[in-house]
Design brief:
Number of domains: 1
Largest sheet: 9 strands, mixed
Strand order of the largest sheet: 1-2-3-5-4-6-7-8-9
CATH superfamily: Alpha/Beta hydrolase fold, catalytic domain
Number of helices: 12
Radius of gyration: 18 Å
Low-confidence stretches: 1-7, 10-55
Structural class: alpha/beta
Helix content: 25-40%
Shape: globular
Order of helices and strands: EHHEEEHEHEHEHHHHEHEHH
CATH architecture: 3-Layer(aba) Sandwich
CATH class: Alpha Beta
Number of strands: 9
Strand content: 15-25%
Length: 318
Amino acid sequence: MPPFKPRVSPNALPELAEVSGNEREIDLSAPCYDCPTSSKGTIQPQTRRSHRMATGAQAWTEESVEAAGVSLQMVKGGSGAPLLILHGELGHQGWLRCHDALAQEYTLHLPSHPGFGATQRQEWIMNMRDLAGWYLEAIDDLGLQGANLMGFSLGGWLAAEMAAMSPDTFNKLVLVSPAGIRPPEGEIYDMFLAVAKEFLTAGFHDTASTPEFLDICPDEVSPEQAEAWEIAREEACRLSWRPYMHYPGLPNLLHRLKRLPTQIIWGREDEIVPVSAAQVFNNSIPGSSLAIFDHCGHNPHIEKTDQFLTTVKPFLAS
């Protein structure tokens, strides 16, 4: 894999905006959240929609950092106490409105897991517990002990595994529609029987009322984005195929989080991980809080951003 070229947000490059009024040229400086590695190891640049770069948005940078023996693709933005955010099964969804709001009070660290984005796969990482163990070592190398931890979907499962292994490593935990536990009612959506766009669409209750939906799932998908999704699906399959998207022993391990303040967030109309799993997480983590959003699917942070922030910000600040 060639050296990773650091990137910065347009807000960190005011001179760029002054030089050119062309929105697409400014867009080209956007981070490559899903920079796919092709079979030849070439990093493919991508663009992002310009409204992510509106005046007043928090600046971010993207770079490759060394952690636990891996060159880790990392997006970083904001200021304040560290908040480590773990993405779901299709990789980063971009610098979203929720990120921008949280970055006003926290320093956000958004890594791409090994095998996702521009972070190289580690062949020895064969399941979620392997990945969780690797991340705990990476956290030591990055000096992120005591950080707040947040995870979405597959990343929520990963966050739960990490916290169960080492609860004292983290300050607070936010699990957003996490996989990892088999729902007592309904089944986890089989993403490998659908194309990526179908899976993304199924993650929303009302795409028409979700402005950011077209940013993460545009009508016309570039070949680079399609390749990025397929690479992410392949890695998700390696990590979570048997048993599919859950670990039967996880509920029995979550009692170790009894001293770790935990907020669980779910959409009542979640078609990816049915909401019945929410109560299992809540019952398995002593003292945890559960918020279920009505008229919301698998992505509460995108579909109900204001409600998500109203729930998360006071929890993290308390």
